[in-house]
Automatic annotation (TrEMBL):
Keyword Transferase: yes
Organism whose genome encodes this protein: Nonomuraea angiospora
Site, Positions MEP for the nucleophilic attack: residue positions: 161, 223
Function: Catalyzes the formation of 4-diphosphocytidyl-2-C-methyl-D-erythritol from CTP and 2-C-methyl-D-erythritol 4-phosphate (MEP).
Official protein name in the record: 2-C-methyl-D-erythritol 4-phosphate cytidylyltransferase
Pathway membership: Isoprenoid biosynthesis; isopentenyl diphosphate biosynthesis via DXP pathway; isopentenyl diphosphate from 1-deoxy-D-xylulose 5-phosphate: step 2/6
Length: 250
């Protein structure tokens, strides 16, 4: 009998893309010939470690996602569910859409269309022995803490870059662990006033004894947030589709 836990890829696509400022949610914008969300869907669909995909989509756009799923033959998609008002609400709704059986959950920003298969492999491997795993890269910039000063901001602190990492997705957990963290967060009246910007932040705050193992991410695994990111994603996706020079026929 195969005792491997099932792995569910959750695509968080419930946002509206305010910072990119377009009429439709940014995950539906076409980049390198496909909507951004479809690039992310294809990565999960083609990953042998992923057994099932659940999509959380902006209310009003779930039918559009179902069309993309049907047309592209993404047969690992089991559910397309409406997302919530914040990323954490969408995660909570995703957890509600999963059954009671223990599994691995890989929570991925749908707007990170350049997720590499290697990262999924390493995350699922790490989940064989750990219950919480995140993907992160070192910071190549020096990171400052801004403080209010006379007439504007001043530097409050310069952080030690050697211990700083930039958090990416997928953020990966045993279902029972991420559910427990969110149940505690929702029971805390203070959570709404100090929301978390990612799922690891919820686990760290509400299950501080659970170590969150780090897997190396990638500079390519960008989050399409601002208009310039669309151009960068386009170029990187084109590059990824181009064989390296050594593989070209001579
Ligand atoms: N209510 C929300 C908000 C965000 N997300 C998802 O979380 C990921 C990262 O969020 P972000 O880049 O902030 O997306 P938006 O919220 O759409 O962008 P903005 O903050 O500029 O409005 C995206 O794939 C987004 O669709 C979500 O599932 N549900
Ligand atoms: C989850 C995340 O992508 C990790 O870097 C990030 O925190 C999402 O932030 P956003 O403001 O919701 O884009």
């Amino acid at each position: 009998m195969d005792s491997r836990l099932r792995s569910v890829g959750v695509l968080l696509a419930g946002g509206v893309g305010q910072r990119i400022g377009m009429d439709t949610p940014k995950q539906l914008i076409e980049v390198a010939g496909k909507p951004i969300i479809e690039h992310s869907l294809a990565v999960f669909q083609n990953a042998p470690e992923i057994d099932e995909i659940v999509v959380l989509m902006t209310p009003g756009y779930t039918d559009r996602v179902r069309e993309i799923v049907d047309k592209g033959g993404y047969d690992k998609v089991s559910k397309v569910v409406e997302g919530g008002a914040s990323r954490t609400e969408s995660t909570w709704l995703a957890l509600g859409a999963l059954g009671a059986e223990e599994c691995n959950v890989l929570l991925h920003d749908a707007v990170r269309p350049l997720l590499e298969p290697r990262i999924i492999t390493e995350c699922v491997k790490a989940l064989e022995t750990r219950s919480a795993v995140n993907v992160a890269i070192p910071s190549s910039d020096t990171v400052l803490v801004a403080a209010p000063g006379p007439g504007g901001e001043v530097i409050g602190d310069v952080l030690d870059r050697s211990v700083l990492r930039r958090s990416q997705t997928p953020q990966c957990f045993r279902l029972s662990v991420i559910r427990e963290a969110y149940e505690r967060a929702l029971a805390d009246p203070g959570f709404a006033g100090r929301p978390a910007t990612d799922d690891c932040g919820v686990v760290l705050r509400y299950l501080p004894d659970v170590p969150i193992h780090l897997v190396p991410g990638s500079e390519h695994n960008i989050k399409v947030t601002h208009p310039l990111d669309l151009r960068i994603a386009e170029l990187l996706l084109q590059l990824a589709a181009t064989p390296p020079i050594s593989d070209l026929p001579r």
